[in-house]
């Protein structure tokens, strides 16, 4: 039964810390044989008991001495529990009631350590690391046989409930984060499949080179409606969609259309790696390595005009024997050369010429969910994916060449201004509108 205290929030400054605490060594001597951690836990439990007694004494006065000015009176003891190393361990906690009879008062030290969020975070970390609910206890620290035997909240169902609560929090935090202060330069969007569920995820790169997991939405396929919903949600959370942004996508027409519909001035960069794979998939084995090398050489040319000339020459050669591959080379060719047309520095271009950055985040999401055998519904896929994105965000480093991002911003603004003033031809030249 939950108790309604007079003070709903505990101020840690109210905790009474005794100057000296006596520890009964004979009670914890047996713990020494189980390791130093078990010994420290045994001593710590005695310290917690002493601190709770000190809190009660500070509020109620010394035991056996009447104090007319006391704020509370002792009200016996009851069973309680505190989190310890991913489990809950039982303690006997004192109780006290307000002297004026208005209700029960909290014991500050007990409330301070009784933070259930710790258990949720530990369950989240262990399950994302690949530990199943059945083997959860195998990942806990050895705190002594006596404590382990009395511990609770380590069953499969209890761990599962903690994990669900923690991932729901991660999902809610991710989808509600304020984006009004984010100065976005580059934007990536892609899909990840969990069984029959498809999660479309978005990654942003700020002007300082920091990568941000932005949002996700669940559906069955990467359709335009789904992607538009995701990008619109970013706008509603304060993301500035009026400034020019480099949108790096694969060949999906749905992604392309949604980005064009929501962003005011998107500049599309088609993933060069996807384009190479699409072309070589239409070729026999003996030609794949040759064509792959020629396309990669073209994408690393000194400029967009040189790269376009090399790719068009390759397409002309393929026309004779493999027209499907030739058509694939030409399809969206100008959008695969955007980073060259913007004269992005080679170091920064390595990040922006492909969707590797967002695919790296997706691979982390898949890795964390590798132990899931049955996906119950789309909400479960969203929770796992959100938890993986948050975990990936902790591992992110700033993109290589991030010092060139301000120059990219200037190039994007110049490109958009040029498009506004004229019509950009496929060779990069401009004619009057």
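Sequence proposed for the structure above (433 residues):
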């Amino acid at each position: 039964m939950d108790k309604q205290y007079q003070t709903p929030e505990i101020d840690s400054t109210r905790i009474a810390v005794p100057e000296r605490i006596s520890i009964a060594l004979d009670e914890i001597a047996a713990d020494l044989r189980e390791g130093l951690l078990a010994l420290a836990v045994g001593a710590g439990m005695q310290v917690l008991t002493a601190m709770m007694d000190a809190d009660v004494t500070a509020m109620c006065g010394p035991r056996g001495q009447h104090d007319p000015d006391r704020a509370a009176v002792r009200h016996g003891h009851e069973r309680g529990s505190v989190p310890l190393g991913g489990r809950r361990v039982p303690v006997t906690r004192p109780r006290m009631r307000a002297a004026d009879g208005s209700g029960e008062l909290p014991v500050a030290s007990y409330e301070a350590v009784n933070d259930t969020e710790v258990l949720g975070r530990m369950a989240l970390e262990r399950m994302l690391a690949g530990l199943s609910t059945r083997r959860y206890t195998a990942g806990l620290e050895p705190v002594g046989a006596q404590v382990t035997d009395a511990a609770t909240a380590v069953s499969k169902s209890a761990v599962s409930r903690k994990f669900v609560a923690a991932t729901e929090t991660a999902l809610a935090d991710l989808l509600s984060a304020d984006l009004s202060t984010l100065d976005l330069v580059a934007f990536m969007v892609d899909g990840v499949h969990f069984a029959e569920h498809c999660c479309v995820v978005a990654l942003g790169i700020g002007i300082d080179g920091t990568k941000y997991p932005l949002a996700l939405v669940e559906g069955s396929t990467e359709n335009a409606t789904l992607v538009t919903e995701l990008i619109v949600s970013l706008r509603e959370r304060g993301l500035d969609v009026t400034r020019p942004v480099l949108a790096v996508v694969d060949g999906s027409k749905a992604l392309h259309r949604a980005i064009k519909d929501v962003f005011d001035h998107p500049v599309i960069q088609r993933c060069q790696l996807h384009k190479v794979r699409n072309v070589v998939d239409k070729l026999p084995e003996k030609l794949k390595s040759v064509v792959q090398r020629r396309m990669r050489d073209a994408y690393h040319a000194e400029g967009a005009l040189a790269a376009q000339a090399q790719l068009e020459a390759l397409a002309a050669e393929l026309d004779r024997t493999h027209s499907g591959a030739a058509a694939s080379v030409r399809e969206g060719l100008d959008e695969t050369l955007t980073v060259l047309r913007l004269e992005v520095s080679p170091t920064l271009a390595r990040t922006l010429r492909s969707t590797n950055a967002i695919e790296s985040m997706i691979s982390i999401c898949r890795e964390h969910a590798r132990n899931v055998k049955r996906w119950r519904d789309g909400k479960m896929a969203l929770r796992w994916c959100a938890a993986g994105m948050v975990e990936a965000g902790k591992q992110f480093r700033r993109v290589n060449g991030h010092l060139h991002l301000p120059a990219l911003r200037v190039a994007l603004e110049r490109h958009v201004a040029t498009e506004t003033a004229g019509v950009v031809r496929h060779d990069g030249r401009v004619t009057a509108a």
